[in-house]
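Lab notebook page, bench 4
Experiment: in silico fold of construct C2
Operator: M.H.
Input chain length: 433 residues
Purpose: comparison with the prior construct
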Amino acid sequence: MSLSYRQPGVVLTDRRFTVPLDHDRPEGETIELYAREVVAGDKAHQELPWLLYLQGGPGFGADRSVGRAGWLGRALKEYRVLLMDQRGTGHSTPANRQTLPLRGGPAEQADYLTRFRADSIVRDCEAVRAEVTGGAPWTVLGQSFGGFCVTTYLSLAPEGLATALVTGGLPSLDAHADDVYRAAFPRIERKVAAHYARYPQDAERARRIADHLLTHDVVLPNGYRFTVEAFQSLGIVLGTGDGTHRLHHLLEDAFVRTPQGFTLSDAFQEQVQGMLSYARHPLYALIHESIYGQDARPTAWSAERVRAEFPQFDAAKALAGDEPLLFTGESIHPWMFACDPALRPLRETADLLAARTDWTPLYDPARLAANEVPVAAAVYHDDMYVDTAHSLRTARTIRGLRTWVTDEFEHDGVRTGGPRVLDRLLALARDEA
């Protein structure tokens, strides 16, 4: 039974769908998907085309927006929008430290999680589309990992798409995870340099915090073991539009004076644990590197191995000299499964996923080269999360795809400049720009 309710300017409807865990075995086990239908209040009873939004991630539920904010307001001018919690996220059948033991031990859990990549998500979308649109194709907007899913959609089921829109999420079609991270660490270093150029006082603040963590055993209130590597990983915010400012405000109040001397403040620790914990999105950590797995090569904790090729990211070495402490970006490491209480029980499962050698291709270059779906993609210049060169190489292989390359936004352009970004993509896809 669907439940409808109102927010300012919109009507929302909660919808639930049952899909096979393994689409190759439709008679087997099923899981539940949750989606929120959104329509403008003054269009609630109109027949409108559908737009499906695919959230970034992997492992995040769809946006929980209020009213007609951002890109959604632009979409609601002409579409009925479906915000779907991809399998394992949000209100869909969850996959986390509490539920995964229902599958059995780590080996069974790892096998289960192999079905949570873009290919399964696309087949979920097709099952949902049959119920929602009656079989009519829909427009899909994919942000970040959602754009990876759109590229898979164009490879597996282009007949389901009226238009495909991608923002910050054109993947390499053939790069191994090692290639992705070798391209990523130099970009991250540039973002950190830009941060220190804007906020030069943060260079010393970061060194002071790192020195404290190297010489003290710090456990955050939620039980997270706060190491210097964990501190460096806060640099993930530098890939967003306001990330440099958020990081600056975090660092400026890190220490408080106590009778025992200076220590990390409660306020700082409270903010940090919220930024570091994977309790709300454990799938992001578990399957992140698997989104790059497409052949017999294991990902084998790629980010951790490749980071060793960039010794300038070693905090102890930086503090021993006069080099700035470098933050890191979007990467998952084995130590996270030792530090984070939400991930600790899943370390062996993560190890098994990292060792797998049976990943199947997620993209079909031949089908993409013959594409007939109108496609437009926003590619953010020097995007910290998705390599620009990789994205542009892929753009050239998808027939008819039109790109908008811009340095006006960071990776989260659809959030910070949503109406303008969506307007531009629609215009490109419709050959109006």
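Observations: The chain has two domains: 3-173+363-429, 177-355. The chain has 18 helices and 13 strands.
Next step: discuss at group meeting.
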